[in-house]
Each structure stands twice: as structure tokens, then as C-alpha cells.
Amino acid sequence: MADLQREEALAEHAHAPHQVSLAKTRQYLENLQQPLYPPPCFPTPTEELLVPPLNFALVVPGIYRSGHPNVKNHPFLLKLGIKTIM
């Protein structure tokens, strides 16, 4: 008799929108336990972020203009192969 009542109770709640199966709940919990990684479009911590100086622009091929560069702009300028700053 208890089995019949249990089956009736389960059938009664089977179509409720808030019901989630135990297997689905386990799957959600397993997904939460996996480490999160940044999307590939963002630089990884080992990649260096290249930051141009303020107002940086090309004047003619090989000649650029900008505001005064600071330390965080040096990797950007080195990547361009700039040798002289006036």
C-alpha cells in the first residue's frame, strides 16, 4: 500500500515545472565543481597586454605621434620596433 501511495505522489508532482530530477541536480552540482577558465578571447595571465601611449597614431609609414609614453607603454613601442622617441 505504501508503494502505491508513493507512486501516486510521484505521479502527482511529475509534471510540476519546479521539479528537477535527481540526475539533473547531480549534473548541475558537478558542473559547479569544475574550475572556471576565462574565455579564450581574453589574454591569459602569461600574455602581456600591449598598451599604446595616449593619442597614438600613424603620421606616415614609419613615423608615429603620441602623448608622452610611460613604463606601461614600452612593450607596445618595442613590439613596433620604435628606436627613437622625440
UniProtKB/TrEMBL annotation:
It is an enzyme of class 3 (hydrolase). Gene3D superfamilies: Protein tyrosine phosphatase superfamily. It holds the Pfam family Y_phosphatase2. GO terms for molecular function: protein tyrosine phosphatase activity. It comes from the Eukaryota. Its EC number is 3.1.3.48. Keywords: Hydrolase. The keyword Lipid metabolism does not apply. This is Tyrosine-protein phosphatase siw14. The lineage of its organism: Eukaryota, Fungi, Fungi incertae sedis, Zoopagomycota, Kickxellomycotina. The gene is SIW14_2.
